[in-house]
């Protein structure tokens, strides 16, 4: 949009979409209320940094006014303290005028510190500058601090803008005369007035007395345009055009400055001829030779001559080369114009040679332009093949179009686009110069000028004349021969131009450096696109003074650089002994002092010397360094300064000479020492220039000179830091040069100061301090137990001597322990019929021992038994049968008869869990074994070894006998402990002890009672008994239970089992066969008790039964069955006939064995007698089985039918006689008893039959329901 200040206010023109401007009035004009300012000069900037544009207005009153933009977009005039420009006007503070000048403000960040500063001009003052500080206040900088000092253009209107695009602000001023002054800001922040052709506004004269300026990219093309206003109210727009400026480079800016200076009538061609990626130069000449300059990676051109030049054999007067792939084979061919006006053609062969084609083989054989032919080859008509332009001496360019048959056709003068080119000796070059996509024509003329023809849309060529031609007013010698190419790789077109005698000219556009190089201080390098500054100048545009110099004058003057005095050959100022106060140092100091951004920007040095300490004079040439210091270069300041002598060096007096190294034996242990000092005691220094003394190596001490070390002699030592060697103590020695004395090995001794240890005698060792040798204890006795070690360090037990007695003692102990194995019995853990064991062990009885039985396993051995409770095993003496055993394992034996056949079970009890077994003497000597080897073999082997050891070591036999005597008690203790262990840890005995302890808790004080009915036991007591010994009882019978369990349990108290566990009155008398399995026995009683009480009634455990094994005192059987008394005196009779006895329970198995025993028959007779008397509550004879009570039908019919009919012998002959007599005397004989028993059994069978019928009926009823 456009904001215009007028005499009566500010107008606002809004830019429309069609780019037109529409004046906004009334409420549409945001500046409608601003009417107080005459000749208003508005500036729109974001002064307060809130993101909204504010308004700054200068006017004819000379003041500066600030309108802040509010959030509602309205403008509010700030006054008094709210106005940042209060007190600022365009009047000169030192003068007064009758007329009031107009103020023209400009708000920009001139010093680059991130905030806006104020530039103020007026009609009657020079430009004033106000720097904005961090607290947002404005401070005017005057005098030399004003960056615009010296610019005094009356009535100027300032605009600060980066016109040249180098990144800093330049200054544009319009004055009353209509001129525009352009001050280009340099890299050193100075302002350089550009005039003449250097000014982009040169020749732009505005016809007005008062010019106001504004710069903006009005057309949106990316560059700045100029808007001007005048007193008449007219506003002019000057659109900026992007027109590259061609510049002829000379001297170092010309890359061909020293190339082909002696080549006359040069005609250049630039092409990568050798295909290495670098541009090569082919240069035709008047003499006809083709000069070949090969391009290098560095950008230089290297002339190739002789065999290195591919054009060495080519010569054509006034040659004009053109390199192009004419035949389309992928390599470059050579087309050569020359003096005779024809063209030569050289084909590039595969072997890289050039072959001249003549006659019809030359595609250009019929072309002739008279003289001085100069070819240009390009696809002009865009048909995919190459056409030819040919310049010559007739002042015209001929155009030959290539046809489909590859011939060349000359376009006639009327149809040719070039028919109106009336020049002589022209050299054409075709290129798209204006970048519009089609080819244009550039023609070099004889007079060194250039004609430029621009191609039009209809292929017409229009000659551009005057300023329309980019080559206007460009002249390069004579006979200009142009070649257009991007030589410097800057993506723009350059010109390499051959001339008649001035060598090669190089023309390019303006330097692309970010700054325009200062014309007197540097030049633009085309190879680097950077400014190359002359000596004494610096910065990107060479505007600054180099290190060691300062600028004269102000920022707006062009004063030269002043160098500091005392310049040395290596480029140092102040004789290298001080700091030059140049511009760089001045800026650094201002920055360190916290100066404002503008002050730092304009800071300048004064080219004086600030001498380092100890140096004086204008150029710091006077003065010298004092003692302890020397003149050295300081890395930070890069000047010479007096620095302290480093450690290891000293300087005794003042002068310019350097510090010197300390000599041998002396040091300088700190900086700045004037003299070196000697080493402390115990240290030395063998080298020059050291700041510390070294300790001598261990084993040596400093020599008197202090510069070397002497080794300690033998017998003395020295550690680090020792000043003198010390003697070794007693018992220690040292060789030459030792750091410490080493202790003599045990067995050796040494005197004080000795170097060698003395060896002790063979039977001696050294004492603790190595001062004397001592004998080992008993070393010279008859039986020495100690001897010196092989190094004689200590006395050691003589294990070789001791090991023999130890071994002999061990052998004696072994023999003493093995001998009893041949005679001592083994504890029997179990005797069991093989029917209950694995079949692989064979038939018969298996004997298991608790510990190993030590019987040799390779034969059958004769043995005897003791305390097994099996009568036929325990009966010793002559006439008894012989028992043999066969070894099954270390713990198992098979009992065999005298013929070696396995023994079978016998009636009256066979199995046991107690007793002992041993070999029959003296056969046991050969039958005993240990670890599978006969004991006799062990003893024999050990005795042989003992004898051999005695013989070899010459040990006294009496000593050996003494060892054997000592081993006998050890053997006795061992076997005693072994016997006790086996006795206590037999599983059977452990269980007996456990059950005995349990009984003591249940019945701690058992009381004896008379034999008879009061010794009954409960079924619960029997059940507990069975559960305690189930693993031992298993399927065994009463023949096992009585001797193996009942007798051991009652041995101590000598009571009956019933008395031991707690007796009571009998309820049921039990008649049974001892051979019945105990498990079936208990199960039968449990079935009976539960039938009487019911299964759910726990009182069934309290039913008491009188059982001979448990109710009789097995230790006093004579009292239970008197030998001389009547049967009525026996405990059986008394229990059966007691008033509390309810029935006789006979336990039957499937063999009905009780009916074959005399005692059972007696009990049946007594029961029948009691039953005949009709005793109250007496149930009579009840038959029990493991499946139930037979009398109640709770038994199978098969079992009932197996009741025997015939009595057998009683267990004891004396008992049978008494019972037979009782039957015949009181009961009418066996026949009568048998008839009664059959009658009773028949009644039982009827009960079984009835019970069976009931169960069968129930079964049928259940099937019917289903």
How is this fold's topology laid out?
Elements: E1 2-6, E2 9-15, E3 21-24, E4 41-45, E5 54-58, E6 64-69, E7 75-78, E8 103-108, E9 117-122, E10 128-132, E11 138-141, E12 157-161, E13 170-174, E14 180-185, E15 191-194, E16 211-216, E17 225-230, E18 235-238, E19 246-249, E20 267-271, E21 280-284, E22 291-295, E23 301-304, E24 320-324, E25 333-337, E26 343-348, E27 354-357, E28 374-378, E29 387-391, E30 397-402, E31 408-410, E32 427-431, E33 440-444, E34 450-455, E35 461-464, E36 481-485, E37 494-498, E38 504-509, E39 522-525, E40 530-533, E41 537-538, E42 544-545, E43 549-551, E44 561-563, E45 578-580, H1 583-592, H2 597-602, E46 609-611, E47 629-633, E48 640-644, E49 649-650, E50 660-661, E51 666-667, E52 677-678, E53 683-684, E54 694-695, E55 700-702, E56 709-711, E57 716-717, E58 726-727, E59 732-733, E60 742-743, E61 748-749, E62 758-759, E63 764-766, E64 773-775, E65 786-788, E66 795-797, H3 799-818, E67 826-833, E68 845-849, E69 861-866, H4 871-874, E70 883-889, E71 892-896, E72 916-919, H5 924-927, E73 929-930, E74 933-934, H6 935-953, ...
Parallel strand pairs: 76-77, 76-78, 78-79
Antiparallel strand pairs: 1-2, 2-3, 4-5, 5-6, 6-7, 8-9, 9-10, 10-11, 12-13, 13-14, 14-15, 16-17, 17-18, 19-38, 20-21, 21-22, 22-23, 24-25, 25-26, 26-27, 28-29, 29-30, 30-31, 32-33, 33-34, 34-35, 36-37, 37-38, 39-40, 41-42, 43-44, 45-46, 47-48, 49-50, 51-52, 53-54, 55-56, 57-58, 59-60, 61-62, ...
């Amino acid at each position: 949009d456009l904001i215009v200040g007028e005499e009566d206010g500010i107008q606002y023109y809004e830019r429309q979409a069609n780019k037109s401007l529409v004046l906004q009035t009334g409420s549409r004009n945001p500046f409608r209320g601003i009417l107080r300012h005459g000749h208003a000069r508005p500036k729109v900037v974001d002064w307060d940094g809130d993101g909204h544009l504010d308004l700054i207005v200068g006017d004819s009153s000379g003041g500066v006014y600030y309108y802040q933009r509010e959030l509602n977009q309205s403008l509010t005039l700030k006054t008094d303290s709210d106005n940042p420009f209060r007190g600022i006007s365009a009047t000169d503070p030192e003068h007064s005028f009758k007329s009031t000048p107009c103020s023209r403000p400009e708000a920009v960040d001139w010093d680059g510190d991130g905030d806006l500063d104020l530039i103020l001009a007026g009609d009657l003052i020079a430009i004033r500058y106000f720097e904005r500080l961090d607290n947002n206040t404005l401070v005017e900088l005057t005098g030399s601090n004003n960056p615009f000092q010296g610019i005094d253009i009356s009535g100027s209107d300032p605009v600060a803008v980066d016109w040249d695009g180098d990144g800093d602000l330049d200054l544009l001023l319009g004055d009353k005369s209509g001129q525009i002054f352009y001050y280009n800001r340099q890299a050193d922040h100075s302002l350089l007035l550009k005039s003449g052709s250097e000014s982009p506004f040169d020749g732009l004269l505005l016809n007005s007395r008062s010019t106001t300026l504004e710069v903006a990219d009005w057309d949106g093309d990316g560059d700045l345009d100029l808007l001007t206003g005048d007193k008449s109210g007219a506003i002019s727009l000057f659109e900026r055009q992007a027109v590259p400026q061609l510049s002829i480079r000379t001297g170092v800016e010309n890359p061909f400055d020293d190339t082909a200076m002696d080549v006359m009538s040069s005609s250049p061609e630039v092409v990568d001829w050798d295909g290495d990626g670098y541009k090569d130069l082919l240069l035709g000449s008047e003499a006809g030779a083709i000069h070949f300059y090969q391009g290098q990676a560095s950008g230089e051109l290297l002339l190739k001559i002789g065999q290195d030049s591919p054009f060495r054999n080519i010569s054509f007067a006034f040659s004009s080369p053109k390199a192009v792939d004419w035949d389309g084979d992928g390599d470059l061919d050579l087309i050569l114009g020359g003096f005779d006006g024809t063209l030569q053609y050289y084909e590039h062969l595969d072997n890289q040679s050039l072959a001249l084609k003549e006659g019809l083989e030359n595609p250009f054989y019929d072309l002739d332009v008279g003289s001085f032919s100069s070819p240009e080859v390009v696809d002009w008509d865009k048909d995919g093949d190459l056409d030819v332009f040919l310049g010559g001496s007739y002042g015209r360019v001929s155009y030959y179009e290539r046809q489909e048959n590859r011939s060349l056709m000359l376009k006639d003068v009327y149809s040719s686009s070039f028919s109106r080119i009336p020049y002589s000796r022209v050299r054409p070059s075709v290129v798209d110069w204006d970048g519009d996509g089609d080819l244009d024509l550039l023609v070099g003329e004889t007079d060194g000028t250039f004609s430029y023809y621009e191609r039009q849309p209809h292929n017409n060529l229009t000659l551009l004349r005057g300023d329309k031609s980019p080559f206007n007013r460009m002249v390069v010698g004579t006979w200009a021969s142009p070649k257009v190419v991007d030589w410097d790789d800057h993506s723009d077109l350059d010109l390499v131009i051959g001339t008649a005698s001035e060598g090669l000219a190089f023309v390019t556009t303006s330097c692309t450096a970010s700054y325009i190089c200062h014309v007197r201080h540097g030049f633009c390098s085309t190879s680097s696109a950077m400014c190359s500054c002359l000596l004494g100048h610096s910065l990107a545009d060479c505007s600054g003074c180099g290190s060691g110099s300062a600028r004269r004058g102000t920022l707006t003057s062009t004063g030269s650089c002043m160098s500091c005095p005392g310049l040395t050959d290596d480029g140092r100022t102040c004789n290298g002994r001080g700091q030059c106060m140049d511009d760089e140092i001045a800026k650094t100091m201002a920055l360190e002092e916290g100066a404002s951004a503008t002050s730092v920007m304009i800071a300048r040095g004064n080219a004086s010397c600030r001498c380092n300490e100890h140096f004086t004079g204008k150029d710091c040439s006077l003065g010298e360094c004092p003692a302890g210091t020397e003149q050295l270069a300081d890395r930070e300041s890069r000047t010479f300064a007096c620095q302290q002598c480093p450690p290891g060096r000293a300087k005794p007096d003042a002068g310019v000479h350097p510090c010197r190294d300390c000599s041998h034996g002396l040091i300088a242990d700190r900086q700045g020492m004037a003299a070196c000092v000697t080493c402390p005691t115990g240290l030395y220094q063998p080298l020059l220039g050291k700041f510390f003394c070294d300790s001598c190596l261990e084993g040596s001490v400093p020599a008197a000179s202090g510069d070397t070390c002497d080794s300690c002699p033998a017998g003395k030592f020295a550690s680090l830091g020792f000043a003198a060697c010390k003697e070794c103590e007693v018992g220690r020695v040292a060789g030459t040069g030792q750091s410490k004395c080493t202790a003599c090995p045990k067995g050796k001794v040494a005197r004080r100061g000795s170097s060698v240890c003395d060896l002790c005698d063979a039977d001696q060792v050294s004492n603790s301090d190595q001062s004397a040798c001592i004998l080992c204890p008993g070393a010279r006795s008859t039986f020495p137990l100690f001897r010196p070690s092989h190094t004689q360090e200590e006395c050691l037990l003589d294990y070789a001597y001791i090991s023999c007695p130890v071994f002999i003692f061990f052998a004696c102990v072994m023999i003493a322990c093995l001998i009893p194995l041949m005679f001592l019995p083994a504890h029997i853990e179990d005797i069991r019929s093989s029917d209950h064991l694995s079949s692989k062990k064979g038939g018969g009885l298996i004997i298991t021992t608790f510990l190993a039985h030590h019987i040799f396993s390779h034969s059958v051995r004769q043995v005897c038994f003791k305390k097994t409770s099996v009568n036929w095993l325990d009966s010793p003496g002559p006439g008894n049968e012989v028992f043999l055993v066969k070894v099954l394992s270390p713990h198992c034996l098979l009992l065999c008869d005298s013929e070696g056949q396995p023994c079978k079970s016998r009636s009256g009890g066979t199995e046991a869990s107690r007793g002992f077994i041993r070999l029959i003497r003296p056969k046991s000597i050969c039958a005993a074994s240990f670890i599978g080897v006969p004991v006799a073999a062990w003893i024999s082997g050990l005795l042989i070894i003992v004898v051999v050891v005695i013989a070899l070591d010459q040990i006294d036999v009496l000593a050996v006998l003494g060892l054997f005597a000592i081993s006998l008690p050890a053997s006795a203790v061992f076997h005693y402990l072994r016997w006790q262990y086996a006795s206590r840890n037999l599983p059977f005995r452990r269980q007996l002890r456990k059950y005995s302890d349990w009984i003591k808790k249940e019945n701690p004080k058992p009381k004896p009672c008379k034999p008879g009915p009061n010794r009954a036991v409960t079924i619960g007591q029997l059940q507990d008994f069975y559960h305690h010994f189930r693993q031992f009882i298993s399927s065994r019978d009463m023949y096992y239970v009585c001797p193996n369990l009942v007798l051991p349990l009652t041995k101590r108290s000598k009571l009956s089992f019933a008395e031991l566990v707690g007796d009571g009155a009998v309820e049921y008398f039990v008649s049974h066969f001892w051979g019945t399995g105990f498990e079936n026995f208990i199960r039968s009683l449990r079935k009976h008790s539960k039938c009487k009480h019911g299964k759910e009634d726990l009182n069934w455990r309290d039913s008491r039964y009188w059982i001979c094994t448990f109710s009789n005192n097995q230790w006093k059987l004579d009292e239970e069955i008197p030998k001389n008394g009547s049967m009525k005196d026996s405990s059986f009779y008394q229990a059966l006939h007691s008033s509390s006895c309810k029935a006789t329970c006979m336990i039957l198995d499937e063999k009905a064995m009780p009916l074959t025993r005399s005692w059972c028959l007696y009990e049946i007779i007594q029961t029948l007698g009691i039953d005949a008397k009709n005793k109250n509550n007496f149930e009579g004879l009840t038959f029990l089985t493991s499946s139930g009570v037979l009398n109640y039908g709770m038994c199978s019919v098969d079992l009932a039918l197996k009741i025997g009919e015939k009595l057998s012998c009683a267990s004891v002959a004396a008992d049978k006689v008494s019972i037979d007599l009782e039957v015949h005397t009181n009961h009418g004989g066996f026949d009568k008893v048998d008839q009664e028993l059959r009658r009773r059994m028949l009644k039982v069978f009827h009960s079984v039959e009835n019970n069976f019928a009931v169960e069968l009926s129930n079964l049928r009823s259940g099937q019917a329901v289903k």
